[in-house]
């Protein structure tokens, strides 16, 4: 009993730290690099890993809050299981829809282990795909039925206008029979 009483102050101190951590808000800027990417702060803003060049020229990593507000998710650090299932990288700097152009990444995102179990990552890539004019559920359905066609549709989904100036008449070409 005396041994327990001598350790009681230490137990109470450690308990108070855990209680403080449980009541504290999740702030992106306080997160370590190892869990920054794919986390969501208490404010509902996504966390992004960014680089910071110090005065001596060295590069350091810093977790920052983005301006992207996530609906229905807050105070969330993505699990290692979802990071692995979805084929994403916690060391990714910033966030880009370019990953959707990689067939391996898109296949992992659309896999049942990711798509059905990792709502945070799917929400992020759903919004990135939408920014490119692509509806992620349709892309995933296409990948399951015809992976090559799905990737060509994704590559041709850009919203940018062609380089032909309006002053020139459209070129006439013979139309090929449709497949």
TrEMBL record:
Keywords: Signal
Organism: Carpinus fangiana
Domain of life: Eukaryota
InterPro entries per the UniProt record, alphabetical: PAR1 (IPR009489)
Name under which the protein is recorded: PAR1 protein
Position of the signal peptide: 1-24
């Amino acid at each position: 009993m005396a041994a327990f009483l001598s350790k009681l102050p230490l137990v109470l101190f450690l308990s108070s730290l855990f209680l403080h951590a449980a009541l504290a808000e999740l702030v992106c800027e306080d997160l370590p690099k190892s869990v920054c990417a794919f986390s969501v702060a208490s404010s509902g803003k996504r966390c992004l890993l960014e680089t910071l060049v110090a005065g001596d020229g060295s590069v350091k990593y810093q977790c920052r809050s983005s301006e992207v507000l996530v609906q229905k998710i807050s105070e969330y650090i993505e699990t290692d299981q979802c990071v692995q299932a979805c084929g994403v990288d916690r060391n990714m700097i910033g966030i880009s829809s370019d990953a959707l152009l990689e067939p391996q990444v898109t296949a992992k995102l659309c896999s049942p282990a990711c798509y059905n179990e990792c709502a945070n990552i799917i929400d992020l890539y759903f919004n990135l795909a939408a920014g490119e004019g692509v509806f992620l559920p349709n892309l995933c359905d296409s990948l399951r039925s015809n992976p090559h066609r799905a990737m060509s549709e994704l590559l041709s989904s850009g919203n940018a206008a062609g380089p032909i100036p309006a002053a020139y008449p459209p070129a006439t070409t013979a139309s090929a029979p449709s497949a």
